[in-house]
User: Fold this.
Amino acid sequence: MSHDAADEEFEVGPKPTAPRPGLSLKARAVGLLSRREHSRAELQRKLAPHAETQEALDKVLDELAKAGWQSDARFTQGWVHRKAPAHGAARIVQDLRLQGIPAEAIAVVQSELKESELSRAQAVWSRKFSRIGNPSSPAEYAKQGRFLASRGFSTDIIRRVLKNPGLEDD
Assistant:
């Protein structure tokens, strides 16, 4: 037995990057959706290389949405649930736009997130800076402000949190 044959003997299956020929478009879509939620636009982007025509792809996506396998509303709800504790409304809205979520759904999410923005920003600040405390110098204020801004919180919310991080809404 040659060295190459011995190596092949221990291979367990196809390499992870190897394409999976023979799978239908619907089977590929269900496989992706069984792992996690996908927006329609994201699923379309991932399946496009495997589709013979755009019409065939649209038909499969319509079937999946009709059967309840794919839902932009469910995807949006899950995304917001995962991201809201650590990010501001601006960051979440930007991420949803990049995922191809319709503007109407994003507007609803944005208004819901605005209601809890201050308390979420205070929680994020507390997890990161509670041991340091209130910013005592302009440099520390800027550092903490940049951190909150990078998480997608608005400048008004950042100012309110850094002015008095431990207090709830005025």
In short: The first helix runs from residue 3 to 9.
